[in-house]
Amino acid sequence: MTGLEETLPVILALLLGLAVVLYVVLDGFDLGIGMLFFFYPHEHDRDLVMNSVAPFWDGNETWLVLGGVTLWTAFPKAFGIILPAMYIPVVVMLLALIFRGVAFEFRWVAKPRHRAWDWSFAAGSTLAAFSQGLILGGIVQGIPVVNQEFAGHPLSWLSPFSLMCGAAVVTGYTLLGATWLMLKTSGAVEEKARRLALPLLAALMAFIVAVSIWTPLMSPRIAQRWFSLPNIFFLAQVPVVTLVFAWLCWRGIRRNQPILPFVMAVAIFLLAFLGLVISSIPYIVPPSITIWQAASHPSTQVFYLIGAALLIPLILAYTVLVFWLFRGKLKPGEGYH
Amino acid sequence: METVFGIDAVLLARLQFAFTMAFHIVFPAFSIGLSAFIATLEVLWLWTGSAHFHTLARFWTKVFAVSFAMGVVSGIVMSYQIGTNWSRFGEVVGNVVAPLFSYEVLTAFFLEASFLGVMLFGWNRFPPWLHTMASILVALGTALSGFWILSANSWMQTPAGHELRDGIAYPVSWFEVIFNPSFPYRFAHMMIATYITTSMVVAASGARYLIAGRCTREAMTMLRMGLGMLALLAPLQAVVGDLHGLNTLEHQPAKVAAIEAHWEDTGPADLVLFAWPDMQQERNHFELAVPRLGSLILTHDWNGRFQGLRDFPRDRRPPVAPVFFSFRLMVGLGTAMIAIGWYGVWLLWRGRIAERRWFLHLLRVCWPVGFVALIAGWIVTEVGRQPWIAWGILRTADATSPVTAVQVAISLALFVLVYFVVFSIGIRYIHRMIGKGPQAQQTGPDTLPNRPLAGGQPEAREAAAS
Fold first, then answer.
1. In this complex, do B74 and A98 lie within 8 Å of one another by their Cβ atoms?
2. Are residues B312 and B355 in the same domain?
3. Using CA of residue A41, residue A47, residue A52, residue A56, what is the dihedral sign?
4. Are the Cβ atoms of A336 and B121 closer than 8 angstroms?
């Protein structure tokens, strides 16, 4: 293996990580907004809740597409194993995203007969989040591979662990949504979001603790990663910092600060993601295919990296610009339509 | 092999792709054309200050929003389907085509999706120049997306710039991969198709309002812009289509033989107007043909020759009937659109369009003609590529994922169900919105209290002056 073939997959893996992280952070809160529909029965509240993400959701969801094509471009072998292995949750996620995505437009056009699209938005968001958790859990717990092909059952992904990951992602996204509403809305909508945020934070932390205990028990490889010397000294910081962030998030919610709870909820998510990456690395399809085994041709990776290096900063810049253009809190009754 | 109702996993996966793609292709095609139309309207509005351009731009933006949302959600399905159903395709050609999809996301999807928010929700919030800029960026994004997806599709038709090692494609020259031999023709052909498709919808809506006698000023603008574009682009499309055909003959002769239902190369070829192609007996039934015209069209020479289907082994021939009939449908509708465009422009020029009721009634119901032609053309090129998924590199039958037929069958059933329910409702909503028609904006209770720039907009100034 030459130097290039050794380092490129690492850089591409970081890029894939960036796409996943940005997707989870950005689309997480707007899927969360969808699930929060269940808690806001009144039409005008729902209008406001939906409007708080309406200008952004399309761009947010694009990170999911980037994640998919990055996996395909950089690690075609992993793409060819993970997607067939996760066939059912992926299809369910796609169908759920259809219901939730069209609701953003259909709901307004259908008014005053829009109840069905309220359901489509809320249920679609929940199901999409749950499926993403199933996929995450399914990958972390390991995918059966023989001869570099998926060799499991159509339901191999299904386990108590993946179901719990599904519930954890639903909870986490809802927390992100609630803290986003604290940031973007005011009045009764904001107050309700604050009341919901505390139990959601508590539930998310419980899930994080459960995953942290479950994964090393499930896999000696993961236990070895975290608890061997000297790893434990470095890695122990991850849970400690997570706890600090959780405490800051809790305090922010209690003191009704607008920005801190959202930022801390995002930070908790990032650390949880980092934890799962630490558990799985260097495997992109645990427990058998490493990022080097799955990597595409170096020329493909370099070609993609050039585009990514030039364009991702630009994309981030205009994403920030759009968020900035729609800055500030939405007043009750205020809408873009 | 495991089957569901006698259908194996490969055919199920193909049906799923064909079905989800046929639905999907309509929306981005409409988005590419419509975003360019809206950006043009806004530039005209800024330039002339004429409020009816603004009214029209706002009206079509609402339609665009619904269509775009359906394009986005049906598009995510396409990109993930490559992995769920076609993982061997993904692995064999991924080194070469996957980056094209990545570049599509990086250059196009983010651009259109990010500025779409400004375009849809920024009317009362931002100054007109900023809004117009956002609309132009969205239009640019949709066109760039067309660039990359057609480059990838063209590579599957006419692969270049790669080498094969152990059956896997590796890139050699990225320039040759992107600008592969059929790409310039296919790209031009598809882009013009999207603009024609949109022009048809715009002109048909104009006819609808003129018949009803409302929004007359807007209706006339729509007729002028829609029919004008049609009169210009429909004949241009015929020329580009002809060039595309010559290119196909050079690189995919079996596809052209299927298009023409041309079985044997025994002399100058007839142009088969109608026939029932029989793949078993390798001949046409009920053939109606014009001698030598086929040679003239395909080789630009009365005595030109080109290969017939019998020159290719049976297992390298595409299914003839769908290719043959779709091609005739596409060309027939294309010719009809040239006629509609030219006659319409002539009527406009003579100032008689409002009197020609029969023409307006015809135009009104012709809104889907462009879409039908587009899907027919897509069937020609995709079915004509069979039995290959990537011409000469990988057969469709060898490209699927190691998943069970039951999984593919159930997901196909779900996609069919959901698409019919969701997208037919969406199309009905679009129909209803077009039925309502453009309305000049009122500064009413739904506008933003913190709109600092509303005073700068023409209709607000007009309202204040009156």
1. yes
2. yes
3. positive
4. yes
Q: How far apart are alpha carbons B411 and A120 in whole angstroms?
A: 19
pLDDT, tens digit, 9 for 90 and up, residues B29-81: 999 999 999 999 999 999 998 888 999 999 999 899 889 988 888 888 988 89
Residues of A whose CB is below 8 A from B65: 105
Is the pLDDT at A253 greater than 50? The verdict is: yes
Structure tokens, B380: 């020609």
Residues of B with CB below 8 A from A150's CB?
A: 87, 401-402
Among B334, B361, B392, which residue terminates a domain? B392
B96 touches chain A (CB under 8 A): yes
Q: Is residue B356 part of a domain?
A: yes
- How far out from the chain centre does Cα B284 lie? 31
In a domain, B444, yes or no: yes
The domain total for chain A is 1
Q: Does B84 touch chain A (CB under 8 A)?
A: yes
Q: Based on the fold, state whether residues B338 and B408 are members of the same structural domain.
A: no
Q: Which of B370, B392, B414 is the last residue of a domain?
A: B392
Which residue in A56, A106, A297 is closest to B425 by CB distance? A106
Q: What's the pLDDT tens digit per position in B158-169?
A: 999 999 999 899
> Is residue A256 included in any domain, yes or no?
yes
Angle between helices B110-121 and B51-85 (to 10 degrees): 140
Spacing of C-alpha B79 from chain mean position: 17
Question: Are both B316 and B237 inside the same structural domain?
Answer: yes
pLDDT digits 0-9 by tens, A179-204: 999 998 888 888 899 999 999 999 99
Q: What are A286-296's pLDDT values in tens digits?
A: 888 999 999 99
List B residues 388-427 in contact with A (Cβ-Cβ < 8 A): 401-404, 406-407, 411, 414-415, 418, 422, 425-426
CA–CA distances in Å: residue B237 to residues B25, B196, B338, B368: 19, 9, 9, 17
Answer whether B116 sits within 8 Å of A58, measured CB to CB.
yes
**Which among B191, B295, B211, B203 is positioned nearest to B245, based on CA atoms?**
B295
Asked if B94 and A105 come within 8 Å (Cβ–Cβ), the reply is no
Per-residue DSSP letter, B1: -
Q: Give the domain range for residue A112.
A: 3-325
Residues B153 and B231 in one domain: no
Is residue A332 in a domain? Answer: no
**A335, part of any domain:** no
Looking at the structure, do residues B338 and B431 belong to the same domain, yes or no? Answer: no
pLDDT at A215: 87
Q: What pLDDT shows up at residue A51?
A: 85
Domain of B22, in residue numbers: 7-180+404-460
Out of A83, A149, A322, whose CB is closest to B84? A83
Helix (H, G, I), strand (E, B) or coil at B3: strand
Paired strand residues for B274:
B288
Establish if B216 belongs to a structural domain: no
Tell me what pLDDT residue A52 has. Answer: 87
- The pLDDT tens digits for B252-274 are 999 999 998 888 888 888 888 89
**B244/B387 same-domain check:** yes
Per-residue tokens: B123? 């009317």
By C-alpha distance, which of A136, A61, A59, A52 is closest to A94?
Answer: A61
Residue B219 lies in a domain: no
Helix, coil or strand: residue A149: strand
Tokens of B117: 């928010």
Q: What is the mean pLDDT of residues B15-29?
A: 91
**What are the contacts of B329-334 at 24+ separation with CB within 8 A?**
B329/B372, B329/B373, B329/B376, B330/B373, B330/B376, B330/B377, B330/B380, B331/B241, B333/B369, B333/B370, B333/B372, B333/B373, B333/B376, B334/B234, B334/B237, B334/B238, B334/B241, B334/B373
Query: What is the average per-residue pLDDT within A78-88?
Result: 92
Assigned domain for A320 exists: yes
Which tokens belong to A18? Answer: 């960036």
Global confidence as pTM: 0.89
How many domains is chain B partitioned into structurally?
Answer: 2
